[in-house]
Prior knowledge:
This is HTH cro/C1-type domain-containing protein. The chain has helices spanning 12-16, 20-33, 38-45, 49-56, 67-76, 81-94, and strands at residues 99-102, 105-108, 116-122, 135-139, 151-155, 170-174, 184-189, 193-201, 207-210, 226-237, 243-247. It is α+β, with helices and mostly antiparallel strands. The strands form 2 sheets. Strands 3, 4, 5, 6, 7, 8, 9, 10 and 11 form a 9-stranded mixed sheet that branches. α3 crosses α4 and α3 (38-45) packs across α5.
Amino acid sequence: xxxxxxxxxxxxxxxxxxxxxxxxxxxxxxxxxxxxxxxxxxxxxxxxxxxxxxxxxxxxxxxxxxxxxxxxxxxxxxxxxxxxxxxxxxxxxxxxxxxxxxxxxxxxxxxxxxxxxxxxxxxxxxxxxxxxxxxxxxxxxxxxxxxxxxxxxxxxxxxxxxxxxxxxxxxxxxxxxxxxxxxxxxxxxxxxxxxxxxxxxxxxxxxxxxxxxxxxxxxxxxxxxxxxxxxxxxxxxxxxxxxxxxxxx
Length: 249
C-alpha cells in the first residue's frame, strides 16, 4: 500500500494487521505527507515526542496503549474517528478475544509488560519544560502503565527535600495528576529549571514552595513558574546497588 493514498482508499483491515514496525512506517508516511514534524504531532496528541519516535520506529505497540491516548495519537496523524473505531474492532477480532477493554484502556493480556521510557531532567538546571529532557531511562514500573507520555522524572540535586528525597533520587511526576496544599510537586522555574517542593499557599493566597529540610526557607515561585504535577513515585538506589521505589500515594 502506498503511504500517500487518501484515507478514503485505505483499508482498515490492512492497517489493523500491520506489525508495530509496519504501523510505524505507515504513520511516519502520513506525517511526512502532511509536512509535520514529530514534535508537532506530539503536541496535537498531548504526548512526549520521544513516544512518537519510538512508535514510528516500531518500538511501541500502539494497540496495547490506553485507548484514549492511542485515539488521540491516530487523530493527530490525520485519521478520523470512524476509521479508528474500525481499527479497534479489528484488533479485537485479530487477537481472538484476548484483547479486552478495561475502563478506558485496551490491554493485550498475552503480551509481556514492556519497560517504561521515562524522560528525566536534572533538578535546578536547564529548561523549566520537562519535555526538553535529554535523558531517557527504562524502568519496569507496573503502577505507571497507561501513563506513558504523561510522566517524567526529576533527578534530585541537593538536600532541600531531605528526609524524603535524597540527592540522586528520581522523583516521578504525573503531568495529569491532581495536587493541592501539602502535595509534593514539580515546578518549572524560568532560569532555574525544574525543582521539587512541597506546595502550600500563604495567607494572601500566594503559592509557596516549601522545603522539608528546615534549614531552607519557604519561597514564592517567580513569575512565569508552572506546576507540572504531583510526584507519585520515588526511584532510588538501595544498598547493594539494586534499584528500588516506593509510592507516595
